[in-house]
């Protein structure tokens, strides 16, 4: 007689996933936090609000820094998870953004049945993969196959944001002082997209953020026009109610079944600053 064996699989992410505490808990998603340095202070990602971080930057003109998790940290974390799970599928912040992913891959070689996925993404792009990974696990898919399936689907993620000001990009060395001056004078709002696992600016908007968000959403939905309509995230560092409403209206009209609003944590905040908003979804649905 064939014996059915249920494997208990941990779906794991770093604190850069930007899922709410409720989504993490309801989907049994484990989290290892990044450490953030703000001036002379070190703290775990999530221990300070984005508003507190922005206030510090505005006062001291010093950007927060996200510190990579080292191999030992991952090994210890994976070993801890293995006490309660038979296997671990860990989804990393893009290797194009951090060395942490390589550290996780090396740590996985030290612990049996740990599989690492390079998300080539950040924020709720990672969250989308984690939720999908949990669905696969609940359907009895083996951990190695889950990791393989998630890795393949990273190519179908649409991850982008629109930014109100270039100050943070300037302080982070991603634009010149001349670009900063011109952008602020002309109210230019850059769009940041994830391409090949790296953050790049590929489009610019002008005007008030409410109208910019509406135009940004229209452009994204037009360019990435085969969305999986099951789920979409609206993720922002801070945003006015009008900005969020503009995004929700566009996504409702597009036909998404579940529109989830989340706050971005330290990673997006460190790179992009206040009033940064993005829509994130899998772009592998069927074109009507």
Describe the structure concisely for a colleague.
The chain is of the alpha/beta class and 288 residues long. 40% of the residues lie in helices and 25% in strands.
Kindly name the structural category: alpha/beta
Radius of gyration: 19 Å
Give me the count of strands: 13
Point out poorly predicted stretches.
174-178
**What share of residues are in beta strands?**
25-35%
Give the overall pLDDT as a whole number: 89
As laid out across the biggest beta sheet, the strand order is: 10-9-8-13-11-12
Number of helices: 11
Q: Kindly, what is the distance between the CA atoms of the first and last residues, rounded to a whole number of angstroms?
A: 47 Å
Mind telling me which CATH architecture of the largest domain this is?
3-Layer(aba) Sandwich
Report what the structure shows.
Helix 5 runs antiparallel to helix 6 (143-153). Helices cover 40% and strands 25% of the residues. With 288 residues, the chain is α/β, with parallel strands linked by helices. The strands form three sheets. Strands 10-9-8-13-11-12 form a six-stranded mixed β-sheet, with helices on both faces. It has a four-stranded parallel β-sheet with strand order 2-1-6-7, with helices on both faces. A hairpin with a 2-residue loop joins strand 9 (188-195) and strand 10.
């Amino acid at each position: 007689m064939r014996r059915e064996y249920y494997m208990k699989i941990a779906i794991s992410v770093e604190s850069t996933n930007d899922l709410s505490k409720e989504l993490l808990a309801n989907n049994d998603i484990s989290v290892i936090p990044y450490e953030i340095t703000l001036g002379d202070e070190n703290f775990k990602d999530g221990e300070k609000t984005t508003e507190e971080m922005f206030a510090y930057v505005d006062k001291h003109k010093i950007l927060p820094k996200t510190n990579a998790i080292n191999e030992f940290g991952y090994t210890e974390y994976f070993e801890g998870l293995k006490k309660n799970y038979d296997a671990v599928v860990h989804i990393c912040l893009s290797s194009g953004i951090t060395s942490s992913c390589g550290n996780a891959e090396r740590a996985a070689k030290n612990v049996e049945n740990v599989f690492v996925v390079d998300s080539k993404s950040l924020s709720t792009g990672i969250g989308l993969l984690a939720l999908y990974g949990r669905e696969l696990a609940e359907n009895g898919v083996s951990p190695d196959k889950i990791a393989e399936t998630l890795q393949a689907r990273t190519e179908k993620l649409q991850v982008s944001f629109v930014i109100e000001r270039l100050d943070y990009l300037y302080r982070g060395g991603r634009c010149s002082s001349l670009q900063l001056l011109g952008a602020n004078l002309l109210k230019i709002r850059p769009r940041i997209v994830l391409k090949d696992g790296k953050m790049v600016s590929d489009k610019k908007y002008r005007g008030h953020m409410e109208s910019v968000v509406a135009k940004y959403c229209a452009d994204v939905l037009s360019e990435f026009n085969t969305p999986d309509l099951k789920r979409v995230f609206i993720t922002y560092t801070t945003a006015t109610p009008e900005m969020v409403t503009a995004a929700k209206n566009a996504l409702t009209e597009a036909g998404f079944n579940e529109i989830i609003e989340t706050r971005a944590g330290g990673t997006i905040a460190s790179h992009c600053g206040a009033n940064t908003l993005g829509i994130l979804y899998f772009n592998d649905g069927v074109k009507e």
